[in-house]
Write a sequence for this structure.
């Protein structure tokens, strides 16, 4: 049986690419309890979501957003909030350091950027260490 | 001959396999490293999608309103077609109205965030330019029981005011009040320490003089002249 070198190489490249993609997919998996890859797993500090209330300015732009229901284990981290429109473009944002001690599970953020309340379609939150 | 060639090919293929797997492994390693970078810095990623909707309330089934008169302090004026404001004692007149937010269809979800709320009053009589002020009512009252002598309490500061110089539909911005009503109910979310009850608004003329401004009430025979509350909200 004759084997063409190009066929062999092509097949091997496909196998390697598939292996690489599986590896990447595996590292992106996330459970409700932990987020991580390999030996670098990090505990998620809050897994049950947040609640939001807002205030508006005289032009009915979002002035502040209070994020509540933040688990105590998130104390000492930084919470970043992004307000996005229907096209997922950022129209306002804010961030705050959650105090390491005396944290009450909520934070009120003053929004930077004119974000008409009627145009806000998403709240995006990232809590980072 | 063919056997030797096949062996050579397999030998070269083996070396190539090692090279390709090495490259693939590096690719996977890079992907893994990127994920680790995210994992070590990000503790929570959360998202909430907001759905926007509108509710319009008007008419007697959704509105309670009444006028109170200082000169008839013990009488109830809740069934007439209009409400009148007048600033001069002892003939002062005020209006009270409240909308039943539970009558919205579809129902406003719990703790909804208000985008805007507009109270539309139709002025049917404006003999002179007057400033009309709205105050949030802070204690309970009933349409059939309210009188000048039995007025509810109101907030210390006004919700809004509007200068009127002509008849027609007049829009008052009551966004912040309605936002408080909806966001704090049924269970208050921070920063609300308690539910902010919806007792409506008092309509008042705090100026001087004897001018009477007349607004259509929920009992008005012309639908367009009845008080209307338009709420745009997100949940």
């Amino acid at each position: 049986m004759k084997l063409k070198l190009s066929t062999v190489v092509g097949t091997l490249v496909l196998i390697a690419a598939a292996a690489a993609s599986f590896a990447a997919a595996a590292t992106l998996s996330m459970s409700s309890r932990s987020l991580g890859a390999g030996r670098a797993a990090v505990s998620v500090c809050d897994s049950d979501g947040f609640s939001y209330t807002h205030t508006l300015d005289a032009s009915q732009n979002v002035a502040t957003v209070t994020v509540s229901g933040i688990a105590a284990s998130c104390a000492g981290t930084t919470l970043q909030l992004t307000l996005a429109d229907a096209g997922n473009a950022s129209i306002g944002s804010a961030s705050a350091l959650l105090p390491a001690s005396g944290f009450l599970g909520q934070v009120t953020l003053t929004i930077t950027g004119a974000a008409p309340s009627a145009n806000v379609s998403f709240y995006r939150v990232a809590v980072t260490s | 001959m063919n056997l030797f060639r096949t062996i050579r090919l397999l030998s070269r293929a083996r070396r190539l396999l090692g090279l390709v797997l090495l490259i693939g492994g590096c690719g996977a390693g890079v992907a893994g490293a990127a994920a680790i970078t995210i994992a070590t810095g990000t503790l929570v990623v959360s998202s909430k999608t907001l759905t926007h909707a509108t509710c319009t309330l008007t008419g007697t089934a959704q509105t309670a309103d009444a006028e109170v008169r200082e000169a008839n302090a013990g009488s109830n004026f809740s069934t007439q077609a209009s409400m009148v404001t007048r600033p001069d004692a002892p003939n002062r007149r005020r209006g009270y109205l409240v909308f039943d937010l539970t009558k919205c269809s579809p129902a406003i979800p719990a703790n909804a965030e208000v985008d805007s709320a507009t109270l539309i009053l139709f002025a049917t009589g404006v003999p002179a330019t007057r400033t009309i002020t709205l105050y949030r009512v802070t204690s309970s009252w009933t349409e059939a029981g309210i009188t000048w002598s039995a007025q509810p309490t109101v907030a210390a500061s006004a919700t809004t005011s509007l200068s009127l110089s002509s008849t027609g539909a007049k829009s008052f911005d009551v966004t912040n009040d309605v936002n408080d009503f909806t966001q704090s109910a049924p269970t208050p979310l921070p920063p609300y320490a308690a539910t902010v009850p919806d007792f409506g608004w008092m309509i008042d003329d705090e100026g001087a003089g004897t001018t009477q401004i007349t607004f259509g009430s929920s009992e008005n025979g012309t639908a367009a002249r009845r008080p209307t509350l338009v709420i745009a909200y997100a949940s």
About this structure: The beta strands of chain A are 34-35, 42-43, 51-56, 62-68, 78-84, 90-97, 106-110, 122-128. Chain A touches chain B through 58 residues (CB under 8 Å).
